[in-house]
Design a protein that fits this description.
Blueprint: E1 4-11, E2 21-27, E3 37-45, H1 50-71, H2 79-103, E4 111-112, E5 114-120, E6 123-129, E7 133-138, E8 141-144, H3 151-157, H4 163-168, E9 188-193, E10 199-203, H5 205-208, H6 213-222, H7 226-239, E11 246-253, H8 279-284, H9 291-310, E12 315-317, E13 325-327, E14 347-348, E15 352-355, E16 365-366, E17 372-375, E18 381-385, E19 391-398, E20 408-412, E21 418-422, E22 427-431, E23 437-441, E24 449-454, E25 460-464, E26 467-471, E27 473-474
Antiparallel strand pairs: 1-11, 2-3, 3-4, 3-5, 5-6, 6-9, 7-8, 7-10, 10-11, 12-13, 14-27, 15-26, 16-17, 17-18, 18-19, 20-21, 21-22, 22-23, 24-25, 25-26
Length: 503
């Protein structure tokens, strides 16, 4: 009968003051011999103590429900029963966190990621909600078993962003699915057949966000002891910056033989010993210039100086022959700088219906004249709705039948603030460019918000149950005469709370 050995460690990291991660390891004896082990990592999120409570509730609920589900199998536990037990346990954890958050106003919006492995014999059920990850190391190669439920990973899967761009995105911590963020959740659960010598790794993004996969693979390949491998991985994440809490569980299946020595850097194909750069290090990095670039820069400076010396007036050359240079007309005077509205600091009025014309929940867009573009619900044609709420006529373009609506739609304003509609929570959540939630919009007044669009004044348009509504921006922001890119522009102080979907 195959044996499982494991190691586990959680660490606060170098930046955070609290550890909102939790992990759990349930032995074969605790499972009543119905499975060989249950391993779990949860990464909590939420202001105050919300993240700590959410992750703790998850690691307490999932094992309890798994044991209840396995007990119903009467000694016979097929693989489908394992995956079903894990799926049911994660759904129960979601309900427990959701109810506790709704019952306590101070915990409203708390949530957690959850990644777990239920192992029996040569079969492992792998479940995931959020962006904590499960990996499999086999034959010297590391493979990610789970798919991140995050905003940037959805863009990567859609081809709109590369993996490197996703890692540097300011929205990389916004997750689209988590335990306790809505009344229900759909965990991803799959079965994996194990081979002798396989290594399973569970981790929060405090590890995967700080250490490259090649370095993770090197440490796992070179370290026979599972607990020592956990310690080395946590140390590597802290050396890479330690910007988040770090949780790691390493599980060995059967006899494990190291493939490389720990100091043999050349043995791993494509190995890059440099950890992911922290944001502070990236700002300090300076790329050296080669000699050709220096020469070109020098020539550009000389040419600029000659142009200034030749004449202080602006000239242009005639297109005919002979080419006569004559004084170019003066450019019209620049219009005075208009006050810039701080879009991040706006508050909003209650939603009001813009037009009763039935439209689909997506897409929705604004133009510079205040018009809206939407797709009619019945015919599928594009329609423009003016600022007065009247449709100016259907466009000839017809879109195919609507597919299933996404659980969240989002849009960004010119200053980079992100607006995300959550249908299950009946609210639009607003985030800063750094990914921190500013507040909730339309709470207790929206029904099922879908597509979101913004105009130049900061007004929010949303499709709510196939009807376009507007949440007009209230004049609460402090205007300034500085330009948007002026570093001396000051924003009014804001009261910022942690987002339940941002970590």
């Amino acid at each position: 009968m195959p044996t499982f050995t494991y190691g586990a460690r959680t660490d606060v990291g170098r930046v955070r003051k609290k550890n909102q991660d939790c992990l759990a390891v349930v032995s074969q004896e605790a499972l009543g011999g119905r499975a060989d082990g249950l391993f779990m990592v949860a990464d909590g999120m939420g202001g105050h103590a919300g993240g700590e409570i959410a992750s703790r509730v998850a690691v307490e609920t999932v094992p309890a429900v798994v044991m209840e589900e396995l007990a119903r199998c009467n000694g016979h536990v097929p693989p489908d029963a394992m995956s079903g037990a894990l799926r049911e346990a994660m759904s129960a954890a979601n309900e427990a966190v959701w109810k506790q958050g709704r019952a306590n106003p101070e915990l409203r919006g708390m949530g957690t990621t959850c990644v777990a492995i239920l192992a029996r014999g040569a079969t492992a059920a792998v479940g995931n909600v959020g962006d904590s990850r499960a990996y499999l190391l086999r034959g010297g190669r590391l493979r990610q078993l789970t798919a991140d439920h995050s905003l940037v990973q959805e863009q990567v899967r859609a081809g709109g962003m590369t993996a490197d761009e996703a890692r540097e995105s300011r929205f990389r911590n916004v997750i689209t699915r988590g335990i306790g963020l809505a009344g229900s959740v759909a965990p991803d659960v799959e079965l994996v057949e194990l081979e002798e010598g396989d290594t399973l790794l569970l981790c929060s993004d405090g590890l995967s966000g700080m250490v490259r996969d090649a370095e993770i693979a090197r440490i796992l390949q070179a370290t026979p002891d599972a607990q020592e491998a956990c310690d080395l991985l946590v140390d590597a994440a802290n050396r890479g910056g330690g910007e988040d809490n770090i949780s790691v569980v390493v599980v060995r299946h059967g006899e494990f033989s190291p493939i490389i020595e720990l100091d043999d850097l050349e043995a791993v194909e494509g190995y890059d010993p440099i950890p992911y750069p922290t944001r502070a290090a990236a700002r300090r990095a300076i790329s050296p210039l080669n000699p050709l670039a220096l020469v070109l820069i020098g020539l550009a400076c000389i040419l600029s100086g000659l142009l200034i010396y030749v004449g202080r007036e602006t000239y242009e050359t005639a297109s005919g022959w002979p080419p006569i240079r004559h004084k170019a007309p003066l450019a019209p005077p620049k219009s005075p700088v208009q006050p810039v509205i701080d879009l991040a600091g706006l508050s909003y009025d209650d939603p009001a219906v813009v037009s009763q014309k039935p439209v689909r929940s997506a897409p929705l867009a604004c133009d510079s004249q205040g018009g809206l573009y939407a797709v009619t619900k019945q015919t599928g044609t594009i329609v423009r709705i003016g600022a007065d709420g009247k449709a100016s006529g259907d466009f000839p373009t017809k879109l195919p039948p609507a597919s299933i609506d996404l659980p969240a739609q989002w849009a960004a304003d010119p200053q980079g603030n992100l607006y995300v509609s959550f249908q299950a929570d009946h609210v639009i959540r607003k985030y800063t460019p750094a990914g921190t939630r500013i507040g909730e919009i339309g709470k207790d007044s929206l029904i099922a918000p879908g597509a979101v669009a913004l105009d130049a004044k900061g007004n929010i348009y949303v499709v709510d149950e196939n009807v376009i509504k507007v949440l007009k921006a209230l004049p609460a922001a402090v205007p300034t005469t500085k330009r948007p890119n002026d570093p001396t522009t000051q924003r009014p102080a804001l009261s910022v709370e942690d987002s339940h979907a941002t970590r």
